[in-house]
Automatic annotation (TrEMBL):
A Pfam entry, by short name: Sigma70_r2
InterPro entries: RNA_pol_sigma-70-like, RNA_pol_sigma-70_dom, RNA_pol_sigma70_r2, RNA_pol_sigma70_r4_t2, RNA_pol_sigma_r2, RNA_pol_sigma_r3/r4-like, WH-like_DNA-bd_sf
Keyword Cell inner membrane: no
PANTHER family, sorted: BLR3042 PROTEIN, RNA POLYMERASE ECF-TYPE SIGMA FACTO
GO MF annotation terms: DNA binding; sigma factor activity
Protein name: RNA polymerase sigma-70 factor (ECF subfamily)
Keywords noted in UniProt: Sigma factor, Transcription, Transcription regulation
Tagged with keyword Transcription: yes
Family per similarity comment: Belongs to the sigma-70 factor family. ECF subfamily.
Length: 186
């Protein structure tokens, strides 16, 4: 079963095959989790979204039309659920006691310069990008998703993806330069 295609596994899931669900979950859970975590920036929320994504897969496997890859389909579901959760969180607002208990864990530019670690500096700079730019960079570079697949996941034209990618790389280059890293990003 581990050699079956994702499409075949989804067909088996549609007929109620739990083992196929376990295999598909093990193939895609980490990738989808990392994508969601970068969007929501909260591990508990990301885990909740992942649970919802794979529950939807279990319930809606018979609706999969194979217009995109299963991975693209899962990332699109995850993106929609993450945005929905972020909207609800924004609408609910924060409890004052909870807000006071939150610690700001973000590194300031001085700490980033002191560490001289490109990986940390890049992640910090990525966090400063707008959500639209961050998700395009994340999908293309961290998930190795094509522009065409990103367009399907995000629900925008391919040329818009290319434009966002251009501006995101430009802004990221500026942020990296400001953090003392002149090289390392094409």
């Amino acid at each position: 079963m581990h050699t079956e295609s994702d499409d075949d596994l989804v067909k088996r899931i549609a007929s109620g095959d739990r083992l196929a669900m376990q295999v598909l979950f093990s193939r895609h859970q980490i990738r989808v989790y990392r994508f969601v975590l970068r969007l929501v920036r909260d591990e508990t929320m990301a885990e909740d979204v992942i649970s919802d994504v794979f529950m939807d897969l279990w319930r809606q496997a018979d609706r999969f039309e194979a217009r995109a890859s299963v991975a693209t389909w899962l990332l699109a579901i995850a993106r929609n659920k993450a945005y929905s959760l972020l909207r609800k969180r924004r609408e609910a607002g924060l409890d004052d006691d909870f807000a006071e208990s939150l610690e700001d864990e973000a590194d300031d530019p001085e700490i980033v310069l002191q560490k001289q670690d490109k990986g940390l500096a890049i992640r910090a700079c990525l966090g400063k990008l707008s959500l639209e730019h961050r998700e395009v960079i994340d999908l293309v570079y961290y998930h190795e998703t094509s522009v065409e697949e990103v367009a399907r996941i995000v629900g925008i034209p391919e040329n818009t993806v290319k434009t966002r990618l251009f501006h995101a790389r430009k802004k990221l280059g500026e942020l990296l330069k400001a953090a003392g890293i002149d090289r390392g990003w094409p």
